[in-house]
């Protein structure tokens, strides 16, 4: 395997940082794994080497390489994988993120989606790079258990997913979302804006606009919290 460098979006490969997301990647997508670097001080080496051997994945010694590509001192495993393309399943309910910008939040949302049984997540461009190691790590490997797809516009997304009932989450949404009054569509798309600006008013005319009731003591909920609340209620009621 060729020597690897600190990540850039233009690369055809990326990394998992840490043992857990690396193992999750191997379990979910062994076909994309190019190799695994293990630090000389890693304590569970035998277990990880066995998983790699079972899946015919090269194991490499690379203390300096790990230090070079990771931005934290407590990284002892780096998995190298080939980037891949996906298409979301138009027959499944989805989460749609409009212009997501925070990589840590994006990874957390992917993990939340999988945790509540949503395996299709769409992004309206521009948006954060889903293959950035920061996203991969914060998803704790959940990225490899779902399908994702980027769209140039929301109208393009709708053309590919015409049968979804759309629910836009907005601070000025018209319908309050509560435990006892959550819509029950068979096929839905939950649409969220980014951390800074949310969704603009043009989304009020798209589907049903939703507001999550909150106290007046805060201006808004964190995006990851809003996605978690919305996804939990919709998946539990459908």
UniProtKB/TrEMBL annotation:
Name of the protein described by the UniProt record: tRNA/rRNA methyltransferase (SpoU)
Keywords recorded for this protein, A-Z: Methyltransferase, Transferase
InterPro entries listed in its UniProt record: Alpha/beta_knot_MTases (IPR029028), rRNA_Methyltransferase (IPR051259), SpoU_MeTrfase (IPR001537), tRNA_m1G_MTases_N (IPR029026)
Organism of origin: Lachnoclostridium phytofermentans (strain ATCC 700394 / DSM 18823 / ISDg) (Clostridium phytofermentans)
CDD domains from the UniProt entry: SpoU-like_family
PANTHER family xrefs: RRNA METHYLTRANSFERASE 3 (PTHR43191), RRNA METHYLTRANSFERASE 3, MITOCHONDRIAL (PTHR43191:SF2)
GO biological process terms held by the UniProt record: methylation; RNA processing
Pfam family, one: SpoU_methylase
GO molecular function, one term: RNA binding
Start and end residues of each tRNA/rRNA methyltransferase SpoU type domain: 94-232
Taxonomy, superkingdom: Bacteria
């Amino acid at each position: 395997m060729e020597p690897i460098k600190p990540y850039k979006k233009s690369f055809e490969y990326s990394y998992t940082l840490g043992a857990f997301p690396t193992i999750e990647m191997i379990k979910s997508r062994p076909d994309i794994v190019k190799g695994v670097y293990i630090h000389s001080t890693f304590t569970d080496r035998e277990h990880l080497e066995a998983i790699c051997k079972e899946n015919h994945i090269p194991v490499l010694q690379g203390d300096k390489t790990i230090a070079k590509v990771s931005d934290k001192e407590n990284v002892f495993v780096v998995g190298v994988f080939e980037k891949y393309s996906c298409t979301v399943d138009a027959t499944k309910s989805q989460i749609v993120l409009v212009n997501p910008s925070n990589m840590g939040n994006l990874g957390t949302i992917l993990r939340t989606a999988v945790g509540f049984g949503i395996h299709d997540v769409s992004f309206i461009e521009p948006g954060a790079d889903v293959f950035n190691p920061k996203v991969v790590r914060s998803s704790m490997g959940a990225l490899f258990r779902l399908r994702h797809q980027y769209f140039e516009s929301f109208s393009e997304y709708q053309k590919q997913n015409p049968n979804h009932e759309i629910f836009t989450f907005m601070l000025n949404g018209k319908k309050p979302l509560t435990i006892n009054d959550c819509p029950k569509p068979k096929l839905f798309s939950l649409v969220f804006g980014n951390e800074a600006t949310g969704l603009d008013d043009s989304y009020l005319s798209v589907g049903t606009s939703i507001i999550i009731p909150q106290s007046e003591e805060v201006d808004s909920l964190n995006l990851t919290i809003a996605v978690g609340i919305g996804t939990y209620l919709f998946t539990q009621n459908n």
